[in-house]
Amino acid sequence: KDAKADKVVLKTPDKANATLQAGFKLQMQDNDSDYPALLIGNYIVGGGALKSRLADRIRQKEGLSYGVGSRFTANAQDKVGTWMAFAIFNPANSAKVEAAFFEELQKALKDGFTAEELQSAKTSWLQGQAQSRAQDRELATKLAGNLSIDRTLAFQAELEQKVSSLTVDQVNAALRKHLDPAKLSIVKAGDFAKATARAGTVPGK
Question: What percent of the chain has a predicted confidence (pLDDT) above 90?
Answer without folding.
Answer: 88
